[in-house]
Amino acid sequence: MTPATLQRPIVAPVPSFGVVDVDLHGHTLALPYFYRPGTGGPAVLFVHGLGGCKENFHAALQNPALADCTLASFDAPGTGLACFEPDARLDVSALADLSHQVAERLLPGPYFLVGASMGGLITLLQLRRYGVGRVQGLVSLEGNLLAEDCMFSRRVIAHPLARFAASVFDEMRLDLERSTWVGDRVIAQHMAVNVDVRAYHAYSFETVAESDSGRLLDELLALPIPRLFVYGHANRTLSYLPRLRASAVALAEIPDAAHFMFYDNPLATFRAVGDFVHAHAAQPEA
Fold it and tell me: What is the C-alpha separation between 93 and 98, in angstroms, rounded?
């Protein structure tokens, strides 16, 4: 191997970590976040899914395709380092409100939304509730669109919280630990240390209801902004992919990856994101 072929770290500003206070239903919620200022590239807000946290997107900070981008993500209540507030009426619509508020605080200019799994649903609900506004484009990393996407949340809603917390949550986590996919096993570890069971339970009900409605796919297709749907090679049989291919939505298949592609193949996943946001970023005025 010659020196020219060695991989070197990207040169980019170091991310900062902090807490942003947002208001919801009369409660002030403290949401930990990371923020990495860019060097002229577009801004991106990453939104994690069920059982995830902001750390799901740390590999984006190291990807050359995003080296010049402003990057941000936050922990939803009850995940990562964010506390769950039982009285705050937290559901996925509430998370859409929080995502909008975080963007208003951290990203004052145009930005792209990137949502993973349930995070894809959150971003669609954010656009439904607040309109496109400053959002330049949307990337869905296998975000919820139809009933078939509720592989985790549908297992939750059949159980009251007490039973779910006593046994079902751990059963789901152990199933992921036994998976052959790296991403599944990493998410299982996040569930063990980064997830409040009450949050996992609370967020699942609206996730299933929205996915079963059939409304989300139509909303994605109708959005007046550039869109990219990213899926793992293992899930190339998703029923709605032909409809997306026949639309203006761009598609990217990630090799050697399943649902949690940002862990299975982070290099290809964030390269796809970086290529998309650079292709569709508005050019600054002269």
Answer: 9
Question: In what order do the strands lie in the sheet containing 16-24?
Answer: 16-24, 27-36, 70-74, 43-47, 111-116, 135-141, 227-232, 250-254
% of the chain residues with pLDDT over 70: 96
pTM: 0.95
Query: Regarding beta strands 27-36 and 16-24, do their DSSP bridges make them parallel or antiparallel, or are they unpaired?
Result: antiparallel
Is it the case that residue 15 has pLDDT exceeding 70?
Answer: yes
The identity of residue 152, as a single letter, is F
Q: How many CB atoms lie within 10 A of CB 25?
A: 12
pLDDT of residue 6: 57
What are the phi and psi torsion angles at 221 (to 5°)?
-65, -30
Domain 14-280 in CATH 3.30.70.1230 = no
Q: Are 157 and 50 in contact (CB under 8 A)?
A: no
Distances (CA, A) of 258 to 171, 211, 273, 285: 20, 20, 17, 40
Pairwise CA distance, residues 79 & 193, whole Å: 9
pLDDT at 3 over 60: no
The answer to whether 54 touches 260, Cβ cutoff 8 Å, is no
Extract the tokens encoding 135: 């959002």
Based on C-alpha coordinates, what's the Rg of the chain?
Answer: 18
| 15 within 8 A of 71, measured Cβ to Cβ | yes
Gap between the Cα atoms of 76 and 208, Å rounded = 18
How far is residue 260's CA from residue 284's CA, in Å, rounded to a whole number?
A: 34
The C-alpha atoms of residue 271 and residue 255 are separated, in whole angstroms, by 12
pLDDT of residue 110 exceeding 90: yes
